[in-house]
Amino acid sequence: MGDLKQRLADALDGARRRSLGLLDPLSDEDLLTQHSPLMSPLVWDLAHVGHYEELWLLRAVARTQPIDAAHDDIYDAFRHARNERAKLKVLGPAEARSHIAMVRGQVLDVLEKVDLDPLVPLLTEGFVYGMVAQHEHQHDETMLATLQLMGSAYPHVAPPAPPGRALPAAEVLIPAGPFVMGTDSGAFAYDNERPAHVVDLDPFFIDTAPVTNGQYLAFVEAGGYDEPRFWSDAGWAHRTEAGLVAPQFWSPEGRGSWSVLRYGKRLDLPLDEPVQHVSWYEADAYARFAGKRLPTEAEWEKAAAGASAAPGDANLDQRHFGPAPVGAYPGGASRYGVEQMLGDVWEWTASDFTAYPGFVTFPYKEYSQVFYGVEYKVLRGGSWATSPLVARATFRNWDYPIRRQIFAGFRCARDV
Fold it and tell me: Which regions of 311-402 does DSSP assign to beta strands (E)?
């Protein structure tokens, strides 16, 4: 197997070892239970990644016949909402593990023989293999969100994060001028990251680091959740209907102290860590409270130029099972000196999820195209639960502005 094929096989293997490692400590009942209407049963996710792999690395690449035609319905994310998936005739935990192992064996056999023809877009630089590996890592992050929603103790061992440090400045000036947004060259970049195009921006300030729990606590204690003037009309309506009073998983402990639930353990709120589990509406309200705003995704990407996701430079891959203190990863700073843009928390931006000029769907419209519109807000940068394979400055995530179970935080910006 050549160097490229070996790298592709290693990427697939890394994603699979991560998936199985996350689920191995759990009982069959844990895997089969729907722990939240927002999330699939964990065993559905496990079998789904195998089915997706079959679709793209066996059927699309090798033109094989379906292994089980019923899986095309059961494991199609667009045919069944998450809150319906526990009712489906899904594979049991042992069956799911056996099935995905069988698929992987066939995939590796095909990979050894396939011609990675640069004239075939799906195979150029191994794109489709990278797509499948990234897809599994993205589901691993989804499964980590499900494990958090379980509320019970999840056994894991993680080294402590490096200590934080005082930042050189609270915010950084990003100068006016054009920059190239998106990419044409990333071998594994998704269609929504393409094509590269020039965007000209006015100067702006952006926070050096994400907003911390301590900073957000000041908003909570100042009555920010009771002040309509800090909220958009839609945000205030949602805050009222949902009864929001603080980020998800926070709990008051009396005398001004707070705790946070993390994988079944209640911890003293770490004031120097980036806040997470806040919705876009909450992020937007805090920014107004602070006299600032959320950055657009173009501003965010320009400020992130040169940020590093290399080992030791960013908090990724569930290394610490939570965000690292602000200032803990100076080596990953962007060329402008903006820190912790890759890893720690996904960062809400002000932008709706829309297509770039010249966008072309590839290889299927259900990845990006069907989600374009004002209903979704863009998140950037990845979280502590994101794989380095996905963490890049051009990567675009998106979700509804009400979502809080994802590992999302934010940083603020302001005009010059």
Answer: 346-353, 373-380, 397-399
Tell me phi and psi for residue 110, to 5 degrees. Answer: -65, -45
Task: Provide the residue range defining the domain that includes 385.
Answer: 171-415
**Predicted model pTM:** 0.97
3-class secondary-structure state, position 26:
coil
Whether residues 24 and 121 share a domain: the answer is yes
Answer whether 373's CB lies under 8 Å from 192's CB.
Answer: no
* pLDDT tens digits along 28-66: 999 999 999 999 999 999 999 999 999 999 999 999 999
pLDDT in tens, 175-188: 999 999 999 988 99
* pLDDT for residue 254: 85
- Overall domain count for the chain: 2
Which of 8, 10, 19 has its CA nearest to residue 50? 19
Are the C-beta atoms of 384 and 318 separated by less than 8 Å?
Answer: yes
Cβ atoms of residues 116 and 5 within 8 Å: yes
More confident residue, 298 or 185: 298
Instruction: Look at residues 29, 71, 49 and name the one whose alpha carbon lies nearest to residue 143.
Output: 49
What does 28-83 look like in DSSP terms, one character per residue? HHHHHS---TTS--HHHHHHHHHHHHIIIIIIHHH-PPPS-TTHHHHT-TTTS-GG
Please, are residues 105 and 13 in contact by the beta-carbon 8 Å criterion? no
DSSP state of 235: H
Query: What does the DSSP assignment read for 151-212?
Result: -S------PPPPP----S-SEEEEPSEEEEES-S--TT--GGG-S-EEEEE--EEEESSPPB
The mean pLDDT of 146-151, rounded to a whole number, is 96
Please check whether residues 384 and 257 belong to one and the same domain. Answer: yes
> What CATH number should be reported for the domain holding residue 278?
3.90.1580.10
| Residue 21, in any domain of the structure | yes
